[in-house]
Amino acid sequence: MTAVTVREETRPVTRTARRRRRWRGLGLRLYTLGVLAWLMLPIAIIILFGFNNVHGRFNYRWQGFTLRWYRHPFDIPDLTTALVNSLTIACIVTAISVVMGTLAGFALGRWRFLGSRAVELTLFAVIAASEIAMATGLLSLFISLGVPRGYWTIVISQVTFDVAYVAVTVQARMAAFDRSLEEAARDLGAGPLVTFARVTLPMLLPGIIAGALLAFALSIDDFVITQFNAGKTLTFPLWVYGATRLGIPPEVNVLGTMIFVGGVLLAAGGVVVQRIRR
């Protein structure tokens, strides 16, 4: 009788707990879907209005479906030049940042030397600094040195903050680095360069790839620092901002979609490379 009484008393409690877990799980799913929808909504609008059959200067109202903007996405010469500038600057900035950031992150993760704490503090200060402060500082520096602003001042400005992101990413990768593998390679007769190329570099590669993708995305996306130090050079974000006063053409949506798809493919490629290496 006692056991039956206990089962009868616990049964409603168990059902209530299950009901609560079910509602809690449903609420968590709805919250997750809401956050994802909020994050993807601007991208969805960019993609959607690239197919808008717009008549006039403003591409803010849906007027029908068309593919004509995808047939000639480079019809606006200034916009194409701005896009080429953004892509070439992003490639140059990424290459320089990866080399400098990888060496810095490797050194900070491997050794403790005089000034290493100051270097780490400087890297985090660059990351934490507001863009407007960094843009103003770089602008003052170029003016003081008499450097004309243009394509290469954009490169220098973006390298200044991208190096910090790559260095921190590589340094974090170094925290999980197993040095016994290097010692094993040395015991088997490998020299320092062979050990670095065959053991150290492959183990750091996921961190280097992550840093490179981050540097490329930050470069092609940058507006504030580029605006201050661009001179007469136009990048894709600067051109789009200037076009808002006259109406953004649908080609901007098409090119923006291409950049987004390219970024997704690069990120997917990085994930695939990391999984293959495992």
Automatic annotation (TrEMBL):
- Membrane as a keyword of this entry, yes or no, is yes
**TM segments?**
28-51, 87-109, 121-145, 151-172, 193-218, 254-273
Q: Got a GO cellular component term for this one?
A: plasma membrane
Q: Which SUPFAM superfamilies match?
A: MetI-like
One GO term under biological process is: transmembrane transport
Report the superkingdom from the record.
Answer: Bacteria
- Which CDD domains does its entry note? TM_PBP2
Keywords tagged on the record = Cell membrane, Membrane, Transmembrane, Transmembrane helix, Transport
As for membrane topology, the entry says: Multi-pass membrane protein
Entry keyword annotation includes Translocase: no
Q: Which residues form the ABC transmembrane type-1 domain?
A: 83-277
Localization per record: Cell membrane
Query: Which Pfam families does the protein's record reference?
Result: BPD_transp_1 (PF00528)
Concerning its family, UniProt says:
Belongs to the binding-protein-dependent transport system permease family. CysTW subfamily.
Q: Any idea what this protein is called? A: Binding-protein-dependent transport systems inner membrane component
